[in-house]
UniProtKB/TrEMBL annotation, chains A, B, C, D:
EC number: 4.1.2.48
Stored SUPFAM superfamilies: PLP-dependent transferases
Phylogenetic classification of the source organism: Bacteria, Pseudomonadati, Pseudomonadota, Alphaproteobacteria, Rhodobacterales
Free-text function comment from the UniProt entry: Catalyzes the cleavage of L-allo-threonine and L-threonine to glycine and acetaldehyde.
Protein name per Swiss-Prot or TrEMBL: L-threonine aldolase
Domain of life: Bacteria
Keyword Lyase attached: yes
Ranges that cross the membrane: none
Pfam families in the record: Beta_elim_lyase (PF01212)
Molecular function GO labels: L-allo-threonine aldolase activity
Aromatic amino acid beta-eliminating lyase/threonine aldolase domain ranges (all copies): 3-291
Amino acid sequence: MHFASDNTAPVPPQILEAMIEANHGHTMPYGNDVTTTDVRDAIRIAFEAPEAEVYLVATGTAANALALACLCPPWATVYCHRNAHVEEDECGAPEFFTGGAKLTLVGGDHAKVDPDALARAIGFTARAGVHNVQRGAVTITNATEAGAVYSPAEVAAICAVARAADLPVHMDGARFANALVSAGCSPAEMTWKAGIDVLSFGGTKNGLMGVEAVVLFDPARAWEFELRRKRGGHLFSKHRYLSAQMAAYLKDDLWLKLAERANHAAARLSAGLAALPGATLLHPTQANAVFAAWPREGHRRAQKAGAQYYLWPMDQSLEGPGDQPLSARLVCSWCTTEDEIDAFLRLVEGGPAPAPVHVPG
Amino acid sequence: MHFASDNTAPVPPQILEAMIEANHGHTMPYGNDVTTTDVRDAIRIAFEAPEAEVYLVATGTAANALALACLCPPWATVYCHRNAHVEEDECGAPEFFTGGAKLTLVGGDHAKVDPDALARAIGFTARAGVHNVQRGAVTITNATEAGAVYSPAEVAAICAVARAADLPVHMDGARFANALVSAGCSPAEMTWKAGIDVLSFGGTKNGLMGVEAVVLFDPARAWEFELRRKRGGHLFSKHRYLSAQMAAYLKDDLWLKLAERANHAAARLSAGLAALPGATLLHPTQANAVFAAWPREGHRRAQKAGAQYYLWPMDQSLEGPGDQPLSARLVCSWCTTEDEIDAFLRLVEGGPAPAPVHVPG
Amino acid sequence: MHFASDNTAPVPPQILEAMIEANHGHTMPYGNDVTTTDVRDAIRIAFEAPEAEVYLVATGTAANALALACLCPPWATVYCHRNAHVEEDECGAPEFFTGGAKLTLVGGDHAKVDPDALARAIGFTARAGVHNVQRGAVTITNATEAGAVYSPAEVAAICAVARAADLPVHMDGARFANALVSAGCSPAEMTWKAGIDVLSFGGTKNGLMGVEAVVLFDPARAWEFELRRKRGGHLFSKHRYLSAQMAAYLKDDLWLKLAERANHAAARLSAGLAALPGATLLHPTQANAVFAAWPREGHRRAQKAGAQYYLWPMDQSLEGPGDQPLSARLVCSWCTTEDEIDAFLRLVEGGPAPAPVHVPG
Amino acid sequence: MHFASDNTAPVPPQILEAMIEANHGHTMPYGNDVTTTDVRDAIRIAFEAPEAEVYLVATGTAANALALACLCPPWATVYCHRNAHVEEDECGAPEFFTGGAKLTLVGGDHAKVDPDALARAIGFTARAGVHNVQRGAVTITNATEAGAVYSPAEVAAICAVARAADLPVHMDGARFANALVSAGCSPAEMTWKAGIDVLSFGGTKNGLMGVEAVVLFDPARAWEFELRRKRGGHLFSKHRYLSAQMAAYLKDDLWLKLAERANHAAARLSAGLAALPGATLLHPTQANAVFAAWPREGHRRAQKAGAQYYLWPMDQSLEGPGDQPLSARLVCSWCTTEDEIDAFLRLVEGGPAPAPVHVPG
């Protein structure tokens, strides 16, 4: 019963097989290999973006911070949701890579940036000219940190606000595949057709060992990106092992299939929890994460049985009245099973102890 | 005939097997898994350094730049050889991670820092107090960019100069294993017993997909290192795949065996070249790289037959008188074969065309 | 009728006389002159802080940013009021000088940091360890951007919250003299006795051409400060002209007398406005700035007659119903006269046109 | 006998008078005053550059570092002479303001960059593409740190090398006036007509309290400069006091007259020293600094009598054989007198003790 995060899961067999396959003969380093070229083309095709430049890095923090550094000068600010990963979970990487830009926090339900709040925040910025940090860029996360999904129309609404102020827009797509299969649109519709300039196209949370693609729909800053990537220590010499993973991820829509499995699992878990007495959902379950509250005694049973997930916020205590609801985050991955979910639900509900669960890998 | 770099080679089967083995079940992310704990202990044991803190990153540039950032404040300088990787091949990563420190270039044969030149450079620094960049740290590379190896006594001589000025010393050990088996000493003798404070313990050039360990023999700056690593985007969520590689690398002295194979290959290649008419060695061959010059016609034959290596410096031309010597760099890896070498030597010498060569992987 | 800012005023004659006096003979540069030594001692005496280190710079932004850079590492955050000068009026200087630290915005009435809100903000920080920006430092402004003054007890309450989290506290004292004469306490009571670690001791807004002192009550980071100052281009070669100003400022309590005059003027202006029909004060007038609202027609009369002040917020319009109140900021300086104030009040009220006003200088 | 530096001198009476004159009434801050507008126009006229943007800062380090930050991205290098002020005397300010760019040191006699050496250095840069720091900008100093002066033709030769590599050129003109009157050309001929893009137009060393102008002949980066200046804490609120100084400096060619006086003094001192037995000049005396060597006993006599100047390099000792030559740097200012010089020469030569010297101020 592993719901702590989608990054605790193993990788699907196709990924390992691709790496084994890649491990033959000599190849030129630093992305100058055929697989890398093929992967870049495959992403251009998947996004219907023949002009786009595509680069691989190994962590989502690197992808986001490098992308934002190309969009926002040091003396400007990046507008993001106050619960965005770039604000809360990257130890200041955007500030570091931009050379000291600011992050301006914007509200909105379910960790989605509210377009009106964004417009107000932009309007408030730099009203005193040179004395203020300037307007830099906008970043949104899809799927969000609260498990919600922006529709293409919602993305376009954000981009319209940004465009009115002449600002570029970045999408943190650490869970892009989960958002996409949830929204039921094409990669292009979710990104550049809605106004996105740069995408962090996540692979790691959806089944890779550690590969993210940065897709620059406008190639103007491609060389700057390459220099920043190298200077940040994020250019891999044995690049083929990143490319092989990404190639397998794209092949036969594996990336979409993995995300569908994770989303389905989350939907089942969400529905199950919502049906329990005293339980409520905190956010709509639109991708692979479930945010729910239920009575403390259900948490005690689950955690005692070894179920892994986070109380959310983390500072709640298992000690106290058993009927008081505590809130939690549960994340499903490509390998979450129905058995796992059902066993977990029985635990929370107070049914008989679950049988051991086998996790594939 | 692949001598362009040791980073064009595939990884040995033990590494892939370890990754396959690691790919079962769920593990906590970000290094909070058992394999990571075991690997850190194994490195402490290998270096006889129970107090050391050990961290994994995926690139040598990240390892070096993060290490130097912990040793040198923004207003100080890092003393390095003028041909050091940190100076010539990292696109300013040390400057970026330190927040704008300077690199002071020091001379010395075979890319080894000359202790007297280092002492003079240190003495020259900060003679006008607050007006100057201050003394920060010393970094040396072992094996060097010219394929030479510092003995423990030579390392100690550098460290003595540094210590006299109260400066910490970093070792870029991208090819540490090659240096170690060449010098025939223990890891501890080559590092902290000789005065090294922080080591970039390379794995990638010696057979891993992309794993380097940073070993802080003095753990005082460990937490700072962790923050800098995260902030630099170099903390991996699925950390187990780095740890599994490093564990396999250390197991049964695989790392030393791989380096021995590369060094042996380089020795054979070096001896063969030195014996050719008109050929000379530019640096002693002490690790896995050979620097040699031979007549242009030999280069033309080799390159026509598809041999991969760099003219060094790169701006020499294959056009011109056939008997004029051109210099080159040739790097052997763990999988360089005797057949490959012999075929190459025959080509350079002008003998019969070589048979096809099979490279394992 | 100049109420736009205290930085539009000329300097008092004593300051110019001191500069004329200083302009004789040769002196060693960069602060190695007798006047500088004397000034540093005078500040130590004024603050009863014999161990303190004191440095002069020319702008408040430099003073604040250099001070914060010594207190907060790049991967941490500075807690400040959301309307603080460091947040709103320094174009990201704290982010630049710290190397990319964050500013965490805290609420509180009258631009004073609320201690409970501060405690909550600190408690929220770094709850996920290495993934988050860490706790760095606290900064408060006295007098505040809203013209309010922290009492020593209020400063101590902030410092107690900071100390409980082991955080240093900086005070932006751009209007320190105004705060001090308002609170009626000693410099020591307002600063280190209440827990302040570093003070930006302002001179410019209170009558100097451009001199601020940074007072490090704990001298441990003095050398770092000196290096950061030089590296930031803020070490003056002809330092005597800064020191001469500061010496005259301190002599015979000129600094306190100037602040008293400005505060008295603001009190008169505040009382006069409050007594007008339809007028309200937005903040208590405790230092030299008045924040008030009154009917639009009063603003139209005042601005038509050339009165200089800012509508606050700035985006209000003079066009519209005459009886609707608009809010404004009015700042008095050491040379604001009673005649000026009275003339202004008559204008706002709708009385006869004022006679020309003479401003000393 | 004050030859330590030109920054130990007082300011000429015209400067103080201008500041007294400026000290009347209220003016808008941050350069939004009439004097500032006038000064900017005056500099445009003096340089025949109606399109240029002009900004004032208070220190030469700020002028240089801000200018270079606008010309060179963080991942590139600034080519400078190895004895340039930006390399040796600014504690890494260029590295700080650029966000971590490198300085590449180039040789040349008399602290002038040698064009061929520059071309080689540029050619050597970035030969391995993304792995290397890139080519950024060139900076030269006129007059140089060795008291030599580039002619317009020599400036043009440097700029031609830079232009061939598409690099902008900055001139550190801390002693621009001294260079100009020495070369006998117009400001335009020395700068943009020869290919200079940005000039640090010094005032401080030539008689101001602390004012330098940055002249951007290409105004494209003006707004960026303004933001960097503010963010660096270098935008003065009471800007009028900078502008008043600069206005007086430009009026009636005061700046040229001051430089002529300093240059004349240096010429007299240089000729006098060169005529002494055992004395030699180390560099041609083309501006206001003299570099000469003479027997140690002459130094002992001079320093015993209180003459102020630096042994150059500084680590030479007054102890030792009296006839051994020691080298020294002597800098003349606008207020150096013939009496001072002659008294000094008599001391060095071993004549009768000098009478007291009166320095104006």
